[in-house]
């Protein structure tokens, strides 16, 4: 009898344990914190993208949570206030705050100065008369400025002083001196120009001759995208587009009269693109951008100087 009671007691305990194991357990509540961080120097959306990517790729060492929880941090950007709203486990908040602080630094600014030099068309001639007149070719000007060697750079003050002296002597003309200021890794564009009227067609009426006029934009467009290294070396993507009116006598005939021919000038375009490395406060010649004058056209040379400004 005692043995039967013992067996029955064991079976009851096993049954009770089975019942207890089938009872649903309450879900584990995941502990999360949230915070708002103001981004002072960059776009909040850009910082949010970088931080979110780093969090996913590095798999932050947060506490192991129950599968019912969600340990992944959430980083959202608020464009109106340029802030980041962060929701994450407490173990991850300090790491996220450190990442944001490391990214949100003041980017260096870069000022790009360009001097576009035009050499007289007579410099293309090898005649003794032009030589005596002191005309310069692009290669000779490079040598005058100490920029004739590959990778050569010069002090901008010395270059500007020399260019001013040569311009006063009539040996060159500095036609443009555009400057642009932008932040590291940001593009800046400067446009200098005007709208020129051009006659495109003519007609006769009882009121006399009537001309149809179209305005064409001519001038200079300078686009620069700089990247600054830790030792202030600037890698700059530079694009220069210049448009100007050609000689009227070489233009397109619009109408012919007994005593004259009406022509509209053609718009001549020169576009150059280059990637150059510039040391802070040094002047270089854009490689391959000298425009050899042909058919009486003047030669052009482009000088570029970069100035890095931090803090």
Helix fraction, binned, reads 10-25%
Give the number of DSSP strands. Answer: 14
In terms of structural class, how would the helical and strand content be classed? alpha+beta
Gyration radius, to the nearest Å? 36 Å
Q: What is the averaged pLDDT score? A: 76
> What shape does the CA trace take?
flat
Quick overview:
The chain has 311 residues and is an alpha+beta fold.
What distinguishing features does this structure have?
5-stranded antiparallel β-sheet; 6 helices; alpha+beta; flat; 4-stranded antiparallel β-sheet; 311 residues; 40% strand; 14 strands
Description of the structure:
There is one protein chain. With 311 residues, this protein is an alpha+beta fold. It is 24% helix and 40% strand. It contains 6 helices and 14 strands. The protein has helices spanning 2-22, 44-58, 90-103, 128-132, 138-145, 156-168, and strands at residues 33-38, 74-78, 83-88, 109-119, 173-176, 179-183, 188-205, 208-228, 233-245, 252-256, 261-264, 267-279, 283-285, 299-309. Strands 4, 5, 6, 13 and 14 form a 5-stranded antiparallel β-sheet that branches. A hairpin with a 2-residue loop joins strand 7 (188-205) and strand 8 (208-228). The longest helix has 21 residues, at 2-22. The radius of gyration is 36 Å and the shape is flat. The N and C termini lie far apart (93 Å). Residues 19-23, 62-68, 123-132 and 288-294 have low confidence and may be disordered.
